[in-house]
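Sanity check

After download, print the first record. It should look like this:
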Amino acid sequence: MAGLLLFPDLPAAPPPAVAHLLSGPVRHLSAARRLGVHDWLYVIYESPSYGLVSDYLWRRRWEGSPESEWGDYARSERWPRYDNNRSDNGLPAGLRQLWEDEREARHALGIRP
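Expected structure tokens:
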């Protein structure tokens, strides 16, 4: 996978727009993927309680506005239709492809599906 961002030794700081959302250092952050009017990121980070974990981050895109005005990223549980009782957590079906595209990053970090 070209452009794979892995931080095996010392994790790089996440972009300022997402640093405040995560409880530990980032080990992998995908490129933004546009689904509809939203940008999505796949992130793997080290949780102090659970070790390596992954999550999705999202923000709304505003066409015709500069990226600086699109707003901040939010964690997946802030998605309006989020439901942790569903197998897909109520997140968009298109995230399945993003998850599959990040298989190499999960494998490199020792995360098995």
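If your output differs, re-run the checksum step. Summary of this record's structure: The radius of gyration is 14 Å.
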